[in-house]
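Protein modeling request. Please complete all fields; requests missing the sequence field cannot be processed.
Requester role: graduate student
Desired output: 3D structure, token encoding
Chains: 1
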Amino acid sequence: MKLISIGFGNFVAPERIIAAVDPESNPIKRVVAQARENGRLIDATFGRKTKTVLVMDSDHVILCPLESEEVSRRAAEGTGGEGNEAK
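Delivered output (87 residues):
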């Protein structure tokens, strides 16, 4: 199974990502709140600002500190993005 880095030593399987979206829209804020209430939220930001919300095919929602373009690039390249961790 191929994994890509989403920052701070966290990895996801790119084939399981349904969407990588901006966290600032109200509909996505509702999705995050519902995932938190249902125990399906994974916070991978380590206290940093959430720049992307990853919606997974398992119905989990992951808060990511990387820009969605960076997550997309890493998934397309099939690289883990080592050395390019979020700072």
